[in-house]
Write a sequence for this structure.
């Protein structure tokens, strides 16, 4: 068989504040071999997502922290290059949670291993709009946000992989979609290309006033991605009976003292009429993943769902690219083209 080298990125040290390249180590070793009923998957695309920063910290969350020396977690799209399983022939495209490495052994019962239909949408979207980020938007908005026609839906990080899909689904459901993004270019993209009704630049000096002006009837659904000043501006606008799905609050992910961070629960709980709100993770609806991917793919085909990708070439560049998530340099879905 062909000798294959597995390049992998592991956690070398835990970040203090902003993540740095020296927190990672790149290792090369022989690729593993599949055993009985297993297959070897070659990574083609690697997703970079904000939640990975939390997994680098030594604190308990919804998932256990990464250990020093462990391969960085992450979703991938890959191709089966060796197979001892009749259900996954060589050439099959799959999505999985194989992390920051060029090869991985997979079994048919692996958690979050799915076949990818190349005819549904470009396969890169399986770690983007039809994959975990798109599904996070889909389930968070529809299951927890429960948008109704005519309601106002506000989403932070509106030009990003999750927020961009939230706003477009809100429009599909007949809502007024108001985005929050950083900078004029991103706001223009959100309105002119994605079709939101409005987008407000959180960097503007009068951000809170601008947001209030774009939500004259208040806010019925707020999809929370960032926390911080955005949450502070949205909270007073929430109508009685509002719903707030909490996907994350990236503004605090590099905080050195979490005790000083105002969480969404703190801000929302202090309101006269606290909204229906909770943190969620996309795997709560894992049994519906395939159906949701098909729906998202069909919306892409119908022209109702648009997306943008920021592609960085080479697994060795993943540590540097990862920082883009926290500086706002990426536009849309950030991913690594591995092969």
């Amino acid at each position: 068989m062909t000798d294959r080298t597995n390049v992998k990125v592991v956690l070398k040290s835990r970040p203090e504040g902003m993540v740095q390249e020296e927190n990672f180590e790149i290792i090369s070793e022989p690729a593993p071999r599949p055993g009985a009923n297993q297959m070897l998957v070659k990574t083609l695309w690697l997703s970079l997502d904000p939640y990975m920063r939390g997994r680098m910290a030594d604190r308990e969350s919804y998932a256990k922290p990464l250990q020093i020396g462990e391969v960085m977690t992450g979703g991938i799209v890959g191709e089966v290059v060796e197979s001892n399983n009749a259900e996954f022939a060589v050439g099959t495209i799959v999505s999985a949670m194989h992390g920051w490495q060029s090869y991985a052994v997979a079994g048919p019962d692996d958690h979050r291993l799915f076949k990818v239909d190349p005819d549904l949408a470009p396969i890169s979207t399986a770690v983007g709009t039809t994959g975990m980020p798109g599904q996070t938007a889909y389930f968070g908005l529809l299951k927890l946000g429960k948008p109704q026609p005519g309601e106002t839906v506000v989403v932070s990080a509106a030009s990003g992989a999750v927020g961009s899909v939230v706003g477009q689904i809100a429009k599909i459901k007949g809502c007024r979609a108001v985005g929050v993004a950083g900078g004029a270019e991103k706001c223009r993209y959100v309105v002119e290309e994605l079709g939101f009704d409005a987008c407000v630049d959180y960097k503007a000096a009068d951000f809170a006033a601008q947001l209030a002006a774009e939500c004259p009837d208040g806010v019925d659904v707020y999809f929370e991605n960032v926390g911080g000043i955005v949450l502070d501006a949205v909270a007073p606008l929430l109508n009685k009976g509002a719903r707030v799905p909490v996907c994350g609050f990236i503004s605090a992910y590099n905080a050195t003292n979490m005790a000083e961070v105002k969480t969404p629960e703190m801000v929302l709980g202090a309101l006269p009429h606290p909204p229906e709100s909770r943190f969620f993770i996309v795997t709560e609806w894992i049994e519906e993943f395939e159906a949701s991917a098909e729906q998202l793919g069909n919306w892409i085909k119908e022209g109702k769902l648009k997306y943008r990708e920021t592609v960085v070439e080479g697994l060795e560049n993943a540590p540097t690219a990862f920082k883009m998530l926290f500086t706002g340099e990426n536009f849309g879905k950030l991913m690594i083209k591995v092969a």
The chain has a mean pLDDT of 93. Residues 94 and 115 are 4 Å apart (CA to CA). The longest helix spans residues 132-145. The longest strand covers residues 39-47.
